[in-house]
Amino acid sequence: MADTLRNDAFVAFERVQKSYDGETLVVKDLNLDMPKGEFLTMLGPSGSGKTTCLMMLAGFETATHGEIKLDGVSINNIPPHKRGIGMVFQNYALFPHMTVAENLSFPLEVRGLGKSEREGKIKRALDMVQMGEFGGRRPAQLSGGQQQRIALARALVFEPELVLMDEPLGALDKQLREHMQFEITRLAHELGITTVYVTHDQTEALTMSDRVAVFNDGRIQQLAPPDQLYESPDNSFVAQFIGENNTLLGTVKEVKGGYALVELDDGEVIDCKPVNVSKPGERTLVSIRPERVEIDKSRLHPDAHLLKAEVLEFIYMGDIFRTRLRVAGNEDFVIKTRNAPDQKRLRPGETIEIGWLPDDCRALDAP
Amino acid sequence: MSDTTDTGPVLAADGTPLKKSLSRALRMQKVRALMLIAPLLIFVLVTFIAPIVDMLFRSVENQIVSETLPRTTAALEEWDPDTGELPSDEVFEAAYYDIFIAAERKLHTRLGTRLNYEQTGVSSLFRKSGRGLDDIGEVYQDQFEDLNENWDEARPWAELMSDPDWIAAREAWDEDGAAPMPTYRLQSGISDVLPRTAEAYRIFAEFTQREDEDSPLEEEPWSMVHTALFQDLTEQDVSGYTGPQAAMLQGAAGAVGEFETISFRDGFVEIDEDWLDPEVWQTIQTYSPNYTTGYFLNAVDMQKTPDGPALRDEDERIYGLLFQRTMFMSLVITFSCILLAYPVAYLLSTLPMRKANLLMILVLLPFWTSLLVRTSAWKVMLQQQGVINDVLVWLGLVADESRLVMINNQFGTIVAMTHILLPFMILPMYSVMSTIPPSYVRAAKSLGASNWTAFWRVYFPQSVPGIGAGSILVFILAIGYYITPEIVGGTTGTFISNRIAYHISSSLNWGLAAALGTLLLVVVLGLYWAYDRIVGIDNVKLGG
Questions:
Q1: Residues B216 and B334 in one domain
Q2: Is the pLDDT of residue B168 over 70?
Q3: Does B51 reside within a domain?
Q4: Strand ranges inside B455-503, DSSP E
C-alpha cells in the first residue's frame, strides 16, 4: 500500500529539512506524498514551517537537506519559473500596473502563446471565476473578493497541474471567505488540479481539503482526512489545535480489551480509548469533544463511568447551547447541546452527572 | 425624518444654515493653521520671493534711458532711422542739455554702460562727451564774459533769474540755518522772457542747493546756462524786460548778433566722430521705452534691429550654446545618476534592515561633507598630475607625456556632479523600491517569467515613480548648479548659471542676468509641466 502510493505520488517531500541560520531547523525531516488531484491543506500555527514548505515547493526557498519531487522528478535545482506551478499569494500579488486581462495574459505571454490563443484562455479563465466583465479594470479598482478571484484565475490560466495557495482568503471578511472556500474547492475538483493550500484557519482546512497536514514545530503532527483528524486526533497537539476540545489530565491505571482506565488527578476514574498510551502508570491527557459529552444518563451504557459536574455558565447561541462546567477541577470544560424542543437548559449552580462513550474519549500523550 | 425640509437649505440646530455654521467652525482651524506657518511664510516672502521677483523684474526694466535723456528720447521720436540720415539739430540740442545735466549728476557713465550692452563703444563715447560738452558752452560763456564781467558772477545771475523773496529767504537761512532750507523759485515771468535759460538755471539752482549743498547766490552757473541764454537772446525779444539786471540783459541782447557761434552737432562731432554714426542714435531710440525686450533677446542671442528682432552674428552667439550645453550635461548627469543609483537602491531595499541602515549611512555620508570639499577632492583626483593619472601612468596604461585631460572640461563636470547629486537619486528610488512587496517578483516567477522578465515587466514598471522623482530632483538641481562647474568646469564645462553669476558680479549687467535667470526658470517649469503631462506628478513618490 505504502509502495503504491509512493509510486503514484505526484508531489513528494523526502526527508526534507530547512534551516535559515544553520543553528535551528524550521522544517524537521518532512515526508509527504500527494497523489494527483488531491486537495491538501497545510495547517498549523504561525512559525510551524508550513509556509516554508510551500515556498520550497514553489522554488523560492531551497531545501537544506532532502529532495522534493514533482511527478517523480527531483525539482530541487529547477528555478521557480520552470516548475510550472501556479501560485496564489496571501496579498494576491496582482501586478498593479497591468489591467486584469494583462495580468492574466502575463503567464501566457512568457510561455510564448499567440494572441488569439491567449485571448481565448483569458476569457475562459475570467468566466470560470465569474469575472468576465472586468478584463479592462486595474486591480486597484476591484474589491478584495474580486482581486482574489483574479489571482485565482491568473494562477490557473496557464493550466498548471499543481497550484499552491498561501493563505489566500486571509484578507476577506467571513461571509466572502466562506463563499470563496466553496468556489476554490469546486474549481479544484472540476479542473482536477492538485492543490496545496496553506492556512492557519482550521475551519477552512476542514471544509476544503481531501487531507489535512497539521504542522507544528517543523513537523507534520498528523496527516489525515478532515473527519479522521477531528474525530481521532493522533496526539494532544492535534486534538487541541483542531476544533474545540475538553482536556483532563490523569494517569493510566489499566489497559484492557482495547480500552484504558484512567484515574484523573482528583481521583475519579473514566474509560478511554488509548491512542498513544500503552501501559499503566503513564501520564495522559484525555480529550473529549464538547458535542460528544452526554448529560442524559439513559443514553449511556449502564456501566459507564460518570463524572460530577457543576454548571458555571450557560450560553444561548441559537442553534446550540454552550454550557461551561467545572469537571475534575477543570473550570473550562465545555459541552454543546443541540437546541431541540426537549433539550434541557442547564442553570448555573446546578450539579449534574456527565458521561460519554469510551470511543469518544481519547487518552493522548501528556504534554 | 430629520430637521431638513425639502425646499430650504440644511439648517444647524440653532437655525443658521449648515454651510455657514460649518465654515465658521472650520475658520478657527484655518486661522490656527495659518498662524503656524505664518513665520516661515513671511520670512520666505520677504527674504526669498520678493527679491527674486524684483530681480526678475530687472530683465524688462529700462527706465534709465528715458530718465537720463528725457529730452533726447522725446526729440528722437520724430526721427526715422531708415532714412540713413542723422537726426535733426533739435535732437543734438536736446542731447546737449541731457548729457550735460547727466554729467553734472554723474549719471552719464551709468547710461553709457547700459547702452554699451547693446552697442559696444557707447560707454566711452558718453564718458568722453560728459567731459567735452563744456567746450560748447564755454564758447558762449567766454563771449558773455568779454561783454560784461557780471556774466561770470554768481550774484547778478541769481538776481536776474530768481524770485527776490527767495533771495531774501535764502540769505536769512544762510545767517541762522534754523528753518528748513527755502525751496528755489524762479522770478515770476522770467520763463516767458527767457524760457530756455530759466529752465536751465532752475535745474542748476536746484541741483546746487540739493546735491552740492551750496548757495546759488555764490555759485556761478554752468556753461549750459550761458548756451541757453545765447539761444534765448537770438530768438526772444527781451526789450520789454524791466526786472533786476535788466541793463545787463539788454546789453547782452544787443551783442549776441555778433557772437561767434557753434552748432550743437559740430560740438558733438568735435568731441567724438562717432556721434555722426546713426547707429548710436538708433540705439538710444530703440532703448528709450521704459520696458524692453532687449535683455531677453540678448539672452537668446538676438538683438533689436530696425527690422525687428534678429539673430546675432554667428560669432557673437553664446547663450544658445550655453543653454544647450546646460541641458545636455544635466541630462547626461541625470542618466549617469540613474544608472549608478538603481542597483544601489535595489540592494538597499532588498537587504535586511540592519545592513540596509549601515549602507544608507554610507549613501548619506557625502551630505555631511562640504560641497566645496567634495568638489575640490575631484580636482585632486582628476587633474593631470592627480591621483587617477598617476595610477594610470604607474600601471603603464597611459604614457607620462600623454596624461589624460579629465578636468576643466565637460568630463570633469559630469563626473563631479554625478557624484554630488547621486544621493538625491538614491533616496527617492529607495523609498519607492522598499514599498514594492517581494511577492510581485515571486508571483511573476511562479507564472513562468525568467528572472529578467520578472524584473523588467513587473519590478521595473513599479520602480519607475522612484526614477521619475529622482530624475526630476537631480535634473532640476543640475540645471541650476553653479559651484561645481565653476571649479572643475574650465571653459567647456560651465553652465548657464556660471554666466548668470558672471553678469551679476563681474559685468554688472543685472538685466541680462535676470533675463537668463527667468529663461532658466521658464525652462525648468516647462519641463516640470511636460513631465506632469507625460508621467503625471502624482506618480512621483519622494517617500514611502
A1: no
A2: yes
A3: yes
A4: none
Distance from CA of B344 to the nearest CA of A (A): 23
Q: What is the pLDDT of residue A236?
A: 87
Task: Please name which of B528, B345, B481, B346 lies closest in space to residue B422, comparing C-alpha atoms.
Answer: B345
Below-70 pLDDT ranges, chain A: 1-8
Q: What secondary structure letter does DSSP report for B433?
A: H
Q: Which of A62, A85, A95 to mutate to test the interface with B (most CBs of B within 10 A)?
A: A95
Number of domains in chain B: 3
Q: Is residue B68 part of a domain?
A: yes
CA angle B204, B205, B208 (to 5 degrees): 85
Helices (H) and strands (E) in chain B, counts: 28, 2
pLDDT at B110 over 60: yes
Whole-model pTM?
0.75
What's the gap in Å between the CA of A5 and the closest CA on chain B? 27
Q: Among all residues of chain B, which has the CA nearest to that of A59?
A: B446
- Would you kindly state where each structural domain of chain A is located, as residue ranges? 2-236, 244-365
What chain A residue is nearest to B461 in terms of C-alpha separation? A97
* Co-location of B235 and B118 in the same domain: yes
User: Residue B335 pLDDT > 90, yes or no?
Assistant: yes
Q: Given an 8 Å threshold on Cβ–Cβ distance, is A89 in contact with B439?
A: yes
Fold observed for domain A2-236? Rossmann fold (3.40.50)
What confidence score (pLDDT) does residue B3 get? 47
Mean pLDDT of chain A: 88
Length reported for chain B: 544
Q: Give the CA distances from residue B138 to residues B155, B261, B389, in Å, rounded to whole numbers and listed in that order.
A: 19, 11, 70
**Residue A73 β-bridge partners:** A70
- Is the pLDDT at B347 greater than 70, yes or no? yes
CATH number at B515 reads 1.10.3720.10
With a pLDDT cut of 90, the percent of chain B lying above it is 21
Q: What is the mean pLDDT of chain B?
A: 86
- Quick one: pLDDT at residue B6? 54
Please state, in angstroms and rounded to a whole number, the distance separating the CA atoms of residues B362 and B359.
Answer: 5
ipTM: 0.82
Distance from CA of A172 to the nearest CA of B (A): 19
Structural domain for B28, as ranges? 1-57
Same domain for B7 and B81: no
